[in-house]
Amino acid sequence: MRFRSVYPGWPVATGCFLGVFVMFGLSYSFGVFLTPIQQDLDLARSGVSLIFSLQTGVVYVAAAALGIAADRFGVRRMLAFGMIAFLAGVVLTVVVRSFAAFLIAYGVVTAVGLSAIYVVSYATVPRWFERRRGLATGLATSGLGVGMFAIPPAAEVLIRLLGWREALLFIAICATAGLVVATLLIRDSPAGLESDVDLSGEFPDGYAEMEPFDRASYRAELWAIATSRRFRFVFAGWIGVYATMYVVFVHLVAHAGELGVGKRAGVIALAVIGVTTGFARIAVGWLSDRVGRFRTFLACSAAMAAATLALPAVDSRIGLLAFAVAFGAAYGGNGALLSPLTADLFGRANPNAVFGLVSLSFAVSGVLAPWGAGLIYDLQGSYTLAFLLAGAIGLVGSGLVWLSGMQPAAAR
């Protein structure tokens, strides 16, 4: 087999797939751990939701700084750092006994590790692809769907057999093995490749190497992007769009139990979302390269909101599965285009830093949405209002993203 005939961006995309698998497979399996942790620590629903909210906030706040560090020191070093911090945080999590210590171990230390994995896994692929950017990123980010399909059901079985602490540690050790492989596969960019590697098929207009790192120009460019009107619309829009995602992923399992269809049905629904989003990321990523990435992102974002608005009407296992397919397909198409859309709107230079900055929007929705949904449940004994509010906010967010496309690009 002639390995040189394989475009070197594909091994990078494979490494990013593994990173996405670990990051989101672990993060979005929290709904399975929610009830055991709540019972172990004797917390209210809003209290245990705060753990996930804190972790999410730290992941995306740290992403802004870690993105800059990845551009400066390289993605391989940053991924190795994330792997070590992630495993250390999980080890601390399984040994602590107080709520405050749990918040620090899982909500902060583990989150910093996941943040580094997230930035590298999402922002690296667009540097290696131009013509097939949507497809490549869809393949890489389909790791989210595979992780959601594999990890929550495995976690449920392991919790039942071992307890939630031992189950979490076992999953983390297996995940770390995958991250070791990812670290070996990932590279920064095509710059410096051997002269016999043909990049013209992926970059028809030629590949422009990034200029050497210059602190002053780097800061000036980031500032121009971060203060642009386009960036502000994207940032605000993403806050609304992903409120739906966080409410659904954290509370769907508990909601299924409240409906009377059983929490197992909620776990299965999460797995179905994972399978659907995995296939959708590849299919929609490929399609978006042909029909337009921006309009595809908008359509998928609005569909996520519409599905969330319809969730209170679901009252059966069949309905829950139908919701899972609809939401998973919409979220898959949306998620496949996160980093390509960022590159399309703000350019390919300094991708880790720019993606980290715009990802601060996830911190806002990730902190407020799950906690708010938990609080609404504590006050009303139902998730109906929480899902309706999340869906409405998602539609507003989709509109703001649409408005971003009408704004001028930042001066470069």
Keywords summarizing the entry:
18 helices, about 0% strand, about 400 residues, mainly alpha, Growth Hormone, Chain: A, single chain
Task: Walk me through what this model shows.
This protein is an all-alpha fold and 412 residues long. It has a single domain (9-188, 213-404), classed as Growth Hormone, Chain: A. The chain has helices spanning 9-27, 30-41, 45-73, 75-95, 99-123, 125-128, 133-141, 143-162, 164-185, 215-226, 229-259, 263-291, 293-310, 317-336, 338-346, 351-358, 360-380, 384-404. The relative contact order is 0.17.
Number of helical segments with 4 or more residues: 18
Question: Any idea what the shape is?
Answer: globular
Helix residue percentage: over 70%
Overall mean confidence score, pLDDT: 83
CATH superfamily: MFS general substrate transporter like domains
The CATH topology assignment is: Growth Hormone, Chain: A
Number of strands: 0
The gyration radius over C-alpha positions equals: 20 Å
**What is the strand content?**
under 5%
Oligomeric state of the chains in view: single chain
Along the chain, the helix and strand elements come as HHHHHHHHHHHHHHHHHH
Main sheet properties: none
Supply the CATH architecture.
Answer: Up-down Bundle
CATH class descriptor? Mainly Alpha
- The count of domains is 1
Q: Span from first to last CA?
A: 43 Å
